Amino acid sequence: xxxxxxxxxxxxxxxxxxxxxxxxxxxxxxxxxxxxxxxxxxxxxxxxxxxxxxxxxxxxxxxxxxxxxxxxxxxxxxxxxxxxxxxxxxxxxxxxxxxxxxxxxxxxxxxxxxxxxxxxxxxxxxxxxxxxxxxxxxxxxxxxxxxxxxxxxxxxxxxxxxxxxxxxxxxxxxxxxxxxxxxxxxxxxxxxxxxxxxxxxxxxxxxxxxxxxxxxxxxxxxxxxxxxxxxxxxxxxxxxxxxxxxxxxxxxxxxxxxxxxxxxxxxxxxxxxxxxxxxxxxxxxxxxxxxxxxxxxxxxxxxxxxxxxxxxxxxxxxxxxxxxxxxxxxxxxxxxxxxxxxxxxxxxxxxxxxxxxxxxxxxxxxxxxxxxxxxxxxxxxxxxxxxxxxxxxxxxxxxxxxxxxxxxxxxxxxxxxxxxxxxxxxxxxxxxxxxxxxxxxxxxxxxxxxxxxxxxxxxxxxxxxx
Amino acid sequence: xxxxxxxxxxxxxxxxxxxxxxxxxxxxxxxxxxxxxxxxxxxxxxxxxxxxxxxxxxxxxxxxxxxxxxxxxxxxxxxxxxxxxxxxxxxxxxxxxxxxxxxxxxxxxxxxxxxxxxxxxxxxxxxxxxxxxxxxxxxxxxxxxxxxxxxxxxxxxxxxxxxxxxxxxxxxxxxxxxxxxxxxxxxxxxxxxxxxxxxxxxxxxxxxxxxxxxxxxxxxxxxxxxxxxxxxxxxxxxxxxxxxxxxxxxxxxxxxxxxxxxxxxxxxxxxxxxxxxxxxxxxxxxxxxxxxxxxxxxxxxxxxxxxxxxxxxxxxxxxxxxxxxxxxxxxxxxxxxxxxxxxxxxxxxxxxxxxxxxxxxxxxxxxxxxxxxxxxxxxxxxxxxxxxxxxxxxxxxxxxxxxxxxxxxxxxxxxxxxxxxxxxxxxxxxxxxxxxxxxxxxxxxxxxxxxxxxxxxxxxxxxxxx
Lengths: 466, 466
Fold this sequence. Notes:
The structure is a homodimer.
Chain A: H1 5-8, H2 11-22, E1 26-27, H3 30-35, E2 50-52, H4 57-69, E3 74-77, E4 94-97, E5 104-108, E6 113-116, H5 122-130, E7 134-135, H6 147-152, H7 160-163, H8 166-169, E8 170-177, E9 182-184, H9 198-202, E10 210-218, E11 220-221, E12 225-232, H10 236-248, E13 253-259, H11 261-271, E14 280-287, H12 289-305, E15 312-314, H13 317-328, H14 330-337, E16 342-343, E17 346-349, H15 355-369, E18 375-378, E19 383-386, E20 389-390, H16 395-414, H17 433-437, H18 440-451
Parallel strand pairs in A: 2-4, 3-4
Antiparallel strand pairs in A: 1-2, 5-6, 6-10, 7-11, 8-9, 8-10, 12-14, 12-15, 13-14, 13-18, 16-20, 17-19, 18-19
């Protein structure tokens, strides 16, 4: 599915036309182009030929039309916080930066939904919603991540166990498809059985099927009470078993984050916390005054029977914020703790019954490989991250990490899991897709070919080459 | 996308080969063929040419291979409880009846999921799960509905507001695709961002993309406490407003069913209940002892401020069962109350803020049209059913109902809703799809053509003809 050099010949023409049309909203300087390519992984930076800033759906339609006419690849760009090379431009082309399409268009309080442009960040959206007593729950960790980018990569994060991922929280998407048509994937009703689920087809398609220009997402009332706790365990199994039982009981915990000893150590170093360096759960309970305290009580009973050492409650909002900031800073904590090294964030997801086993085998593998790699996970979903800290000047270290990443993906697949729970495929994980999906990859390829026969929509991503 | 007569020439050959291979598991008697076509709507009965009962995925692969070779349409058949002509065979062909593929293959208690064959009914599954303290929540009303059929039609029902629809509760699907390949759409992990969401593509595709041969679905722990109540209101707006506020507060009500006066009357006649004939909510609360009672208390406060006349609690399981049986018998209640008439069950779904308005306008329309049509709705989702009771010997009545159905779909679309919240498209609602999806219909058509170029998979369903 490679874009041929001949096809790329149109790029210069397309950029010239774009400049006439969009003026300063088209840029071709190297620094800007490099900023719009991948930065957070060890994948090479592959800059686009130009960056363009649309301000409307009509602008996007014009850009797609031009790209189609001149066979120029298109790479949608939100905040650039994705981790698997989604925004790289291996075949050049146009990066479409949604920074100027960041309006919150409508909030429907009674329906608990809102209509936004794709460039709105989750921080901006939640700042706006706070006074209405509402919030948008999906929390991938990067506050600047945009709603459009989160939908495109099927992001999730710490609250997915209670509120779902982008899969459950996008009600509809308006997108410019490769043929230039404007599609709104669904109405604003909560559910529908009217035809193929185009919303879910677009969520997670990583810009390879169309360019998102508007979304309706679900909102929730800010809970009456939010309680948070830190809970160290004797073993990782104990932590996982506690969570399994809590889910079976139907306790609606909003966040259940597992940190291994190495990650706790890094957080202590970075955030100056005095946490016990053991396997640990960071917990958050949402509910009514009575309901949330009841959950807490039940969870504490379960956890103590599974080897919880103690509960440290953070009832005050500032303590809670400090806790979750420490959790969200996990990556930076590792950077502080192992200075000079680059963190290669990866993730897998397995059925929760296999989580403890998968984490323990992974810790063993880390030790055997002689690398450093803290682990933190969304334990309620069976999803965890490992972030090998690589010395970029040490080829042996790099090789060791590469082997580790391959084994981690294979381990997850062998446990009926997935090579990525939430980071997406991008460029980095295309090589695992055949092992995970078998003949399903052909189905994906057929859909891609049917909807984007010229392969101009983020080529080189998601679907492995034949 | 019509199957040509020439293409149908192979049917006789295919049936002859099938008989050699499957013996008594292929039947061509007219009665059996008619039973496998549509019965519950006023759509004409269009029987298949033969019915075949596979017992394994390999059997299904053989059947699909044969159908492909001889260009014979395939119509998957679960329990035949769908309402929009999904199992009709307008181009003849083979009905694949999954009655002999009804095994529960694995229950993963710790993961809260299970692997089943498509012919398992929801009743059988829940009977099996009860002793494990687990349940499968999706409840479309028909106890004999099969899990395969429910996935194919994206079924939901009374519990969707708390537990989601089949969209949220299917973890993966194994299907034989039109090209004969066997695809497993996902692993067993709770979430994944590895490629296009083939699970959600298959859920709701109504057999037009492939034949489901196995599914993994989510389970839940049976709640510690279940409380039910009946709550009559002065107005429909009051009932809807109560539900909106309860959802904003995050009360996890498991069921919130709205019945209009006409439906309550029919239930009184049929189930010999003495319910006040007013707009009414049937409610169910799931939770821990403390949590559920707290929800009840908060809901009661809200409801009283919105004109609830009183709360009748059904704490005993037998009372609760009687209540929900009465709700599930809504269709039969109407049949009893208006004998000699056929009920034409239809459904639409709108944003919940528009629900009261949509129901009231629909009631007005019913009066103006001079027809009888009770209304019952899954109010938490904005989804409601209207079931015109048609005198089959009165052409004027039939015409009046046809006009009513068209206006109901148009009304829902005008309120940003969908022409069907849970019944599906089948044959009956194809005509509304263009109005609902616009250019999205072309996307669906491209996907269908790419994955089933011979159009053998349930032709004449879901996607409107060009």
